[in-house]
Amino acid sequence: MLVEGRACRAIEWDATNGCVCWIDQRLLPFRFERRATKDPEDLARAIETMAVRGAPTIGATAAYGLALAWIVDPCRFADHWLPRFRGTRPTAVNLFHACDVMERAVAEGLRGRRLIELAEDYAEREVRANRRIGEFMAECLARGRRRILTHCNAGWLAAVDWGTATAGIYALHRQGERPHVWVDETRPRLQGARLTAWEMLQEGVSCTLLADGAAAWMMARGEVDAIVVGADRIARNGDVANKIGTYALSLAAREHGIPMYVAAPSSTFDMSLESGRAIPIEERGAEELLEAEGMDESGAFRRVRLAAEGVDACNPAFDVTPFQNISAIISEQGIFTPER
Length: 340
Ligand code: MRU
What we know:
Helix 1 packs antiparallel against helix 2, helix 2 runs antiparallel to helix 5 and helix 5 packs across helix 6. With about 350 residues, the chain is an alpha/beta fold. The protein contains ten helices and 18 strands. A hairpin with a 4-residue loop joins strand 10 and strand 11. It has two domains: about 120 residues, Up-down Bundle (Four Helix Bundle (Hemerythrin (Met), subunit A)), CATH 1.20.120.420; about 200 residues, 3-Layer(aba) Sandwich (Rossmann fold).
């Protein structure tokens, strides 16, 4: 999608320089900086530190990382690099899906440049899936559902290009419709405020930021026509793990009769898990709640403390929304209504 009018992807192969390039999402929206590397460890660290984040982008990053790992360090591919990438974050199943794809390819004898091509193909397939999701989603949203609330960032930064939850919004916008997006700020890391709102501005989509706690009230006031979110892992019964706060949104949506759509490519489905109860939920550090980071007037990044010294904090990064609260799950294969 567009950054200052130029098409851009969250992660991609730079064929001219033979390296992987990604956007350091920790600096957005204040600074747009691209990074480049030939070292797989840089990509593992990018996932771990959330310089890249969002389930499909994490998967694509692991695919590129493992392709580089085979090229620079083939002897340690199985014993070091596969576990290194699999250990970077626990919840988004796309990571494990991508690692399995690369492991299988190496076992089948794919080598060198062919592994890079496979990683490129992996990323490209996610982008194609997102476009298709966008077409299905635009159908759902076109029925007068133009005031759309979204949570976290399930935009192109999170999904290589187009986004999952945002694909339908971008599709409608490019068709000349005028959707309006309520962007949940998404405490504590503020992916909504920092990333989704920035994406919307870059594409010229109308949006308004909401405090997370305001979402239910906006629904009660009749100002939300639909909710669209992404997913990090979907169990066989349709339970959905997504950014913390999604479950609360689903309860409010149900109470107010507002449709709640989940947009996710096939790589986000985990058919090995019967229900959402088995999905591993990432617990993150207390400092994400106790401190805030932003840019001051001089352009310097600053961290400030928000709570008294000695206060403890509990920080689950994801929650599970039961399938009963979801109107439809939209993947590149179609629109699924979980059986109630
Ligand atoms: O912790 P993050 O920022 O990686 O969490 C991202 C989300 O929860 C997204 O909603 C999800 O990955 C869907 S991405 C298209």
